[in-house]
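Table S2 (text version). Query chain:
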Amino acid sequence: MMDKPANGAWLRSVVSALVLAAVGVGPVTVLTALPAMAQDDNPFAARVTVDGAVITNFEVQQRALFLRALRLPGDPETEAIRALIEDRLGAAAAKSAGITVKADEIAAGMTEFAGRANLSPDEFMKALADEGVAPETFRDFVTAGLLWRAVVRAKFPGPQVVSDAQVDRAIAGTVTQPAVRILMSELFLPLQPGDDPDAILADARAIKAEIETGGSFGAAARQYSAAPTGQNGGRLDWLALENLPAPVAEKLLKLAPGQVSEPFVLPNAVALFQLNNIAEERVPAPAAVQVEYAQYLLAPGQDAASVRAQVDRCGDLNIVARGQGADRLTVTKAMASALPQDVALELAKLDVNEASTALRRGDWTVFLMLCQRQALAEAPPAPETDPAAPAANAAASTEPTPTPNPEPETAKDDGLPEGLIAPVRAAVQDQLSAKRLEQRAAGYMEELRSEARIEIK
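Corresponding structure-token output:
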């Protein structure tokens, strides 16, 4: 990997700035395999044609290597083909509109991109060269992004209109929601490959019964727990409820302080949790939480403390993992609600750039590091349903249909200090406007794609 690489959050912010593409919110993990050459081994043979414009095997392989070097999500070859098709469509739209970019603009774009990793363009291209990526591939990537940005600005000029009601809803989602915090303790019984899960579950239920008949959860955690917290009786600091896996949060909310949950079966453990306290207050609380995290697999016998000493942030793990194979390090971005339960539980305990070594994958210990935790003003949109479904459901229901409240004509700004109303509203309006532009740009690209003749060989 690169000597001074940026983490996934930086990469996505740069790509968004260059191409105005919205970043997805589902779980994404870097694929570790090298991209395969197309069926035709001739590097200059056509792999894809877009309205007669040729994308060669070489271009696909180079873009795949580039994406792999940046550790962007998805299958490198599939994503390379998709991106190159969009590059051709954007370039054609730019040509039709008479849009070009100058050499100094391209050079500035390359400098900006490399600068986000604290590298000069030459240093960045040298790091890419170590991964087999030609300088022209980086230059073409930046050029395509700049062209598309110019096309979008020409297609959708001026600021995107955002209503006061939309701003009100966005603000309400961040300043008026109750924030729930949980104080709890944990106990993990290891579940190794080949172990009988039913036997481990039986042990967990026996421990729970012992605690409920006068035993101490702390004493049981010190005796049985395989988690590092076992040494202090399994006790954790206050945790935000929205950072916990939904099934765990749901069960904890049903407990009274002092009660112990039913056992949870996780990939490598069976867990018990004790609720110690719960607190609720009205503070800035997100509608949804998105996290980005790195998983570096420690080989048997590899010293975790030595790795931690070399790592201040997620990007530093690329240096630690250099030359060890791409399967040793993955970077994932996902909604907190969609994470694997064992990963979500560990991430909930971490602040940004903190790490845990509590998880295992077979013989490998997972060095888990939180790269970013982002509160979203709005939860991701729900999946689209059959347009006929609401009418059918309404016809079958005996409940009266509620009348929707009219959108407020004036801003309420509940929860905002008076001196912050104007600047906060302006910042939220800018954010929503940028999001709308990204959505319109994505829609325009889909329109171009639907009208194009695309052949993938």
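Notes on Table S2: Residues 1-39, 382-420 have pLDDT under 50 and may be disordered. The longest helix spans residues 421-451.
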